[in-house]
Specification:
The structure is a homodimer of 204-residue chains. Chain A is mainly alpha-helical. The first copy, chain A, has one domain: Tetracycline Repressor, domain 2, CATH 1.10.357. Chain A is 72% helix and 0% strand. The first copy, chain A, contains 11 helices and no strands. The interface between A and B is large, with 46 and 46 residues. The structure holds a DNA duplex (18 and 18 nucleotides).
DNA sequence: GTCTATATTGGGATAGAC
DNA sequence: GTCTATCCCAATATAGAC
């Protein structure tokens, strides 16, 4: 991937337009005509920057994964009380997971994953796996400080952590039944997940 | 939905063929030609039974949801020790969730959910919501028997229960990175989830 | 009800001018 | 690099015979 600062304006327009459309409509339902229209360029220009529809989608996914990892840096702290730190982690990751960008990306990669293994693999490594590594590091540091049980394996606990966030609220948002969840619903889900995680992982 | 016993053979062939194809290829990638070929009937026959591709997919999804609820009856017991009962639940639901049929259905409904709200809603009610109701009943009965904490809300705990199963193994299977998970990987995931659930929910 | 054959549209990709 | 105009195939759905 090229340096973001050196990206051409047209390429940016195309990536943004494609991101919006793929997120809201999925992969198959979005035509290259529609992307060109949304981006305000001609279809031929699309093909000047990307070899095809799949390459364009792959670029959108890659960019989003990088953005996620960047954003997650801010919650990696250990200074507040354990419950507060845990709550921040849960809050951050739940809000990320139910964001339109994350839902749309996951939804579309999942749908196309079977036919495009390279895309699925690249997404997994840059997205979920990268997120799990971050969370695993946070858990390990909390263990070192004696605030989380020493006997749990961060490599097991990190996936369980994120899995717990993909509960009923997540499913309903992913299926499009709840376009935009209420703040109350999010907070309730965060509280419930935090309670369960602390009961399962907090040191005695 | 009509009585299964009264279904015509051709309709059965079409539903089975469509189920196989949608599961492995997704919705958009499967043509009605391919369904007709796989079912051994002509394309016109497809349209005699189903008004179109969406109706056909909807029928496949509905049938699978019914099958899931039927299958889940067998794990609703409370006679063995708590750990054993919990383990059976986890084992059953994890194996179901990572089955090709469940993954394929979820994947495809998710992808099409945005454009077909009715399908998404019908799937949610007949599938995830129905499963959660069953699990909620099981949890409530365990609470009544004093083996699970009285203060937890089954309506919160049931989604957390299933969410915990959609961990790293599930994601990798769903993305197609692991076509068929090893028995060891499944057992390890079951053990880990059972441990965490018991730590979080078992009565003291 | 079931087939063969076809109408028709939508969309990925490209040719060629500027 | 960017545009307009176009090619071409694939896929949904249907018409009409049996």
């Amino acid at each position: 991937m090229d340096n973001v600062d050196e990206i051409s304006p047209k390429r940016r327009q195309v990536l943004d337009a494609a991101g919006r459309l793929f997120t809201s409509e999925g992969f198959a339902a979005v035509s290259m005509d529609a992307v060109a229209r949304e981006a305000g360029v001609s279809k031929a220009t699309l093909y000047a920057y990307f070899t095809g529809k799949h390459a364009l989608f792959g670029a959108v996914v890659a960019e989003r994964c990088v953005a996620m990892v960047e954003a997650s840096r801010i919650v990696n702290d250990h200074d507040a009380p354990l419950r507060e730190c845990m709550r921040r982690q849960v809050d951050f990751w739940l809000r990320f997971l139910i964001s339109p960008a994350a839902i749309g990306t996951y939804r579309t990669v999942l749908a196309e994953g079977g036919r495009f293994p390279d895309l699925a693999h690249a997404f997994y490594e840059a997205g979920p796996a990268a997120g799990l590594r971050w969370i695993g590091l946070w858990i390990a540091e909390e263990q070192r400080r004696g605030r989380l049980r020493a006997e749990i394996d961060p490599r097991r606990a990190a996936p369980q952590f994120t899995a717990l966030l993909r509960g009923d609220l997540y499913i309903q948002v992913a299926l499009g039944l709840i376009p935009v969840p209420s703040e109350e619903a999010i907070v309730a889900e965060v509280d419930a997940a935090t309670d369960t995680l602390l009961r399962a992982y907090a040191a005695a």
